[in-house]
Task: structure prediction
Amino acid sequence: MVRESRPCWTQKWRCLLLGLLLVLIVGAVAVLAAVALARGGRPPAELPQWKGRGSTAHLKEILLGRCFAYAGLLRPELRKDCLKIWNAFQNAFISKNPCNITEQDYQPLMALAAHPIPCNKTLLWSKTNELAHRYTKVRGDLLTLEDTLLGYMADGLMWCGSPSSPEMNYQSCPHWLECANNPNSVYWKMASRIFAEAACGVVHVMLNGSISQPFGNSSIFGSVEVHRLNPKRVHLMKVWVIHNLGVQSSDSCSKSSIKELKSILEGRNIGFSCEGDHRAVQLIQCVGNPEEPACRAC
Ligand code: N1C
Result:
C-alpha cells in the first residue's frame, strides 16, 4: 500500500507544480499583452501606409525646445507655458484619423499660443519661403508667420497620429494630395488665417516672378490669407515680385496672375501696389551670388 501511494503523491505534486507553472506563464503573457496594448505598442507594420513623410524624429523635443527658445529667450514678455502648448499640440492629432483633422482640434493650441503682431509689419509670401525668411532675418523690419510662436515652433516639421495608436506615426503621414484635412495642412491654413486676420496697416507679400503663376489662387496665400485680411484694418498690400538672379526679368507686375490678385484686393476694398525685384531683396540674393551681372551694378 505504502509503496503504491508514494508514486501517486509524487504524481500529484508534479501535476500541481505543472499547473502552477502553466498559470504563471499564462498570467505573464496576459500582463505583457496588457502593457503592450496600454502603450499602444502595435508593430509599425500595422500603421497605415501614407505617401507623405512620417512625423519628424524627436518632434516633442524639437517643438518644446523651439517653444522655450521663443517664449523664454526671444519674447519672454509673452509668458507662454510651453508644456501646456505641447499638450494642446499633441491633443489636436494624437489617436485621431489623420485625414479628418478640423480647426476645432487646433482651437485650444491656437488660443494658448496667440500673441499680438504690430501694425505695418506683416510679410506674407508664396513660393519664396527661403528668400522671404532670409529677408526678415537680415532687415528685421517685417515679420513672417515663422517669426510668431506658431510658425517658429512648427516650421519644417511633419506630424500625424493614428486612431489605432496613442503614438506619433513616424513611418508616414498623409500627403496633401491624399487628403486635405491632414494635421499639417490644417495647422498651416489655420495659423495663416489667424496671422492674416491680425494684420493691419500696410501688408507686404513676396511672390516668385520666376514661375508661371506668381499668384496662385490655390496656394495658402491665394486661398486663405488674401481673403482673410480685414479691409477695415488693412488699407494697402505692397506686392514684391522677385525673380531668380540671372533670369531675364519680365514685367511681372503686368502678368495675368498678378492682375487677378489686384482685382481680388480692389474688390475687397484694399489698395494694391506692385514692384518687380525690390532692391533690398535683390541685394540679399546677391550676397549668395555676387558674380551675377545683376549684382555687379551695385
Ligand atoms: O501655400 P503658400 O506657399 O502660398 O503659403 C504661404 C503663406 C505665407 O504667407 C505664410 O504666412 O502661408 C503661410 N505659411 C507658412 O508660414 C508656412 N511655413 C511653412 C504657409 N505654409 C507654410 N509652410 C509650409 O509651406 C507648409 O507645409 C505649406 O504647405 C507650404 C506652403 O508653401 P507655399 O506653397 O510656397
